Amino acid sequence: MRTLSGSDRWLALLLAGLAGYVDSLGFLHLGGVFVSFMSGNTTRMAVSLAEGRWGAALEVAAILILFVVGAMIGALIAGAQGPRSRSRVLALEAVLLAGAAAAAGAGAAPLAIGLMVLAMAVENSVFLRDGEVGVSLTYMTGTLVKTGHALAAAVRGGDPFDFRPYLVLWAGLCGGAVLGALVYQGLGLIALWPAAGFALMLALATRISRAG
Predict the structure, then answer these.
(1) 118 and 10 Cβ atoms separated by less than 8 Å
(2) By the number of CB atoms within 10 A of the CB, which of 96, 120, 141, 170 ranks highest?
(3) Which of these, 40, 2, 19, 34, lies nearest to 134 by C-alpha position?
(4) What is the pTM of this model?
């Protein structure tokens, strides 16, 4: 986060909020299974296996596999680094979220969940650096670890505010999740339409701002 420009930090914050929003919709619909937090899903799958709940374990395993596939697709779509790369990734995310919203409206909830998982995996390719994820957007464990490390550096005499970019990113995901949970109460998975529109807006804004 510290190496990002001001505009990129804003983009990262907005995308973290989008991830939190979508993940909360999936979490509520699936009753405690995530569409972006695969560490938590891995634990759930392992516990289900230990308890002999094979159907539940298989459901989570399918989500894990889809997430890996989505990450692969995102990296392929991104290609080289740059503004056009980011706009392509965000456009694909918007299409996937729109497809998920349409599927939910048609009563095809499993398809909607699958497309949500793909969209969340794809999002992590927005800030690729040398083929690696530069900023964690849909999971915050590493971000919170960096927050703690920055606080430790401050205790040793470093910059006392170095932790802020990481904490702000976490707050973005948390805020998005709160909003998603509130909207889900009234709309269910149809609440994906605003998320799709937001992703499309970010794709267009990224393309236009870099072109200018």
Answers:
(1) no
(2) 120
(3) 2
(4) 0.90
Please give the radius of gyration of the chain, using alpha carbons only, rounded to the nearest integer: 17
Which residues on neighbouring strands pair with residue 129, listed in sequence order?
132
Q: Any idea what the Cα angle at residue 52 is, between residues 49 and 55, rounded to 5°?
A: 80
Residue type, 169: L
Q: How does pLDDT run across 116-145, given as a tens digit for each residue?
A: 999 999 998 888 766 566 677 777 787 888
3-state secondary structure the chain: CCCCCHHHHHHHHHHHHHHHHHHHHHHHHHCCCCCCCHHHHHHHHHHHHHCCCHHHHHHHHHHHHHHHHHHHHHHHHHCCCCHHHHHHHHHHHHHHHHHHHHHHHCCCHHHHHHHHHHHHHHHCCCCEECCEECCCCCCCHHHHHHHHHHHHHHHCCCCCCCCHHHHHHHHHHHHHHHHHHHHHHHHHHHHHHHHHHHHHHHHHHHHHHHHC
Structure tokens at 34: 């995530």
Cβ count near 173 (within 10 Å)? 27
pLDDT exceeds 80 at position 7:
no
Q: Look-up: residue for tokens 């937001």?
A: 198
